[in-house]
Design brief:
- The protein contains nine helices and no strands.
- It has helices at about 5-15, 20-25, 30-35, 45-55, 60-65, 80-110, 125-150, 160-180, 195-220.
- The protein starts with 6 loop residues before the first helix and ends in a 12-residue tail after the last helix.
- The chain is mainly alpha-helical and about 230 residues long.
- It holds the Pfam family Hemerythrin.
- This is Iron-sulfur cluster repair protein YtfE.
- It is found in: Cytoplasm.
- Keywords: Cytoplasm, Iron, Metal-binding.
Length: about 230
């Protein structure tokens, strides 16, 4: 993640309301919740003022938020060792931060807005299922497949790669269900900050998961699979 944060950007963010930051910067809700900064009902208060009210050092909070910023054009390595390291840091670690917070927000939205006609009923349970399958999948890559690839093993890795590809297909189906439950992550008119932040986080998770699967399916795995000859 990009930790560079220009002074003018920090000044702008410090003057932004908590609710605006929560919606625009997926992951910020977890920081606000830990620091007891109310981004939902008190979301109209600027970050600077909210920090002053709580006796927090705004620069420290800004530094935490800056770590959530993403580079617009990340450089993706091609060599297997560096590519695996990139996948572990940019995707595995990030998914482990994203999903628990999305589940927490989904539970809250479903409980608080249970009478709303657009409430995403079953969303938290679905995210729990996604999280369980993702954690099992990433664990297999980290403990079995990636060590084999890093050791330069070939031939026998075709089968575990095939299993990972099948599970990636399942992840894609789970994403389709996720989008159906959330109206393509589009919050209804008048949705609270938590609801809007939840859907913004789901959008980022979906984008990240698609990019994650693409890197493995199309850049990492082909380096260890037999080259298919043409049919003619």
């Amino acid at each position: 993640m990009n930790t560079a944060f220009a002074p003018t950007e920090a000044l702008d963010r410090a003057s932004q309301p908590l609710g605006q930051i929560a919606v625009a910067l997926p992951g910020a809700t977890a920081i606000f919740r830990r620091l007891k900064l109310d981004f939902c009902c008190g979301g109209q208060i600027a970050l600077q003022q909210a920090c002053d009210n709580k006796g927090l050092v705004v620069d420290e909070v800004l530094a935490e938020l800056a770590r959530l910023d993403r580079p617009e054009t990340p450089v993706v390595p091609q060599a297997p060792a560096e590519l695996i390291e990139h996948i572990l840091g940019r995707f595995h670690a990030v998914h482990r931060e994203q999903l628990p917070e999305l589940i927490r927000m989904a539970r809250r939205v479903e409980a608080v807005h249970r009478e709303h006609p657009d409430v995403p009923k079953g969303l938290a349970d679905h995210l729990e299922s996604v999280w369980a399958e993702m954690e099992a999948h990433m664990g297999k890559e980290e403990s079995i497949l990636f060590p084999m690839l890093l050791a330069g093993v070939r031939g026998v890795v075709v089968h575990p790669i095939g299993v990972m590809r099948e599970e990636h297909t399942n992840h894609g189906e789970q994403l389709e269900r996720l989008m159906a439950l959330t109206n393509d992550a589009t919050p209804p008119t008048g949705a609270c900050n938590t609801w809007r932040a939840l859907y913004a986080g789901i959008t980022q998770f979906a984008d990240d998961l698609v990019a994650h699967i693409h890197l493995e399916n199309n850049q990492l795995f082909p380096q260890f699979e037999p080259v298919r000859s043409g049919c003619c």
